[in-house]
Write a structure and sequence with these properties.
Elements: H1 7-17, H2 25-35, H3 38-58, H4 63-83, H5 88-108, H6 116-134, H7 139-147, H8 158-187, H9 191-200, H10 203-260, H11 265-273
Helix pairs in contact: 1-10, 3-4, 3-9, 4-5, 6-8, 8-9, 8-10
């Protein structure tokens, strides 16, 4: 018989899976670093843009060299990822972003257009995060629910729903800040500052977003763990009390038989046989 998911239990399991986060700050930083790919992940995401920016700055008349150089670096990084046996989705997604940027810049002949796909993606992600809050389905709640295979259980907990919405606002701010800085630079065709903003507001800002989101969510996670433990203890208490009462009744019945001189049916049967 299938049992309906317990929202408190689900959140408790999430906390248990992320339990290493809640011990101390150094452990949290280590877990975040590993989850985000560490410094290698940061370099993988930044090197193609850095390569494009350097080559274009050295020779602004040779856009093709900057494009080819960034794609070549992206290809090398993709091969390295394959050697590290990372998922094809990660490898393909990373290289596809670089390839699309290169194609757009090659088609328009404008260096600033190399950064246009990233700007559009940030606008899409920011709009999606904002809409998820407005409709009452904050994206972080869906992500954490997906970890446990239950996308909707957390919605029955008002505190968790409010916490996930607050943390999702962090990401609306991250994507919005990128747009506020990068869109004017794009329209002004300031390729150098745009490239620097792309790099600085990439992984560093992403790491800050993850960190502050976790700091917001952690208290609710701890509360969910306590509620889940309390419910499990409450559910176990009646069973324990019932078992104790049965034992006491059995012991009491045996004592009464001895005092009155009556024997149990099994004892009488054994006596008759003998």
């Amino acid at each position: 018989m299938t049992r309906a998911p317990d929202p408190d239990g689900i959140e408790g399991e999430v906390v248990e899976r992320l339990g290493e986060f809640t011990e101390d700050l150094p452990a949290e930083r280590g877990m975040l670093n590993r989850a985000l790919g560490g410094w290698r992940g940061i370099l993988d995401s930044s090197l193609p843009a850095i390569t494009f920016l350097i080559l274009y700055t050295l020779d602004r008349e040779n856009l093709s060299r900057a494009i080819i150089g960034s794609v070549a670096v992206g290809a090398v990084l993709a091969i390295v990822r394959l050697v590290r046996r990372e998922s094809l989705l990660q490898v393909g997604g990373g290289f596809l972003g670089i390839a699309v940027s290169a194609l757009v810049a090659s088609f328009t002949g404008q260096a600033a257009d190399f950064f246009l796909p990233g700007i559009l993606i940030n606008a899409l992600y920011g709009a999606g995060a904002l809409i998820s809050i407005l409709v009452g389905w904050p994206i972080l709640g869906l992500m954490l629910g997906g970890i446990m295979g239950d996308f909707t259980g957390w919605r029955s907990d008002t505190e968790l729903r409010r916490t996930y919405a607050t943390a999702t606002w962090i990401w609306v701010g991250v994507f919005g800040l990128r747009l506020v800085v990068q869109v004017p630079l794009y329209f002004l065709d300031w390729v150098g500052p745009l490239g620097v903003a792309k790099i600085v507001m990439g992984w560093p800002l992403y790491l800050l977003g993850v960190w502050f989101s976790f700091l917001i969510i952690r208290p609710s996670m701890a509360a969910a763990r306590s509620r889940g433990a309390a419910k499990r203890e409450e559910a176990a208490t009646p069973a324990i009390e019932g078992g104790t009462a049965d034992v006491e009744r059995s012991a009491g019945g045996a004592g009464a038989d001895e005092e009155t001189g009556h024997s149990s049916p099994e004892s009488r049967s054994s006596s008759d046989d003998s």
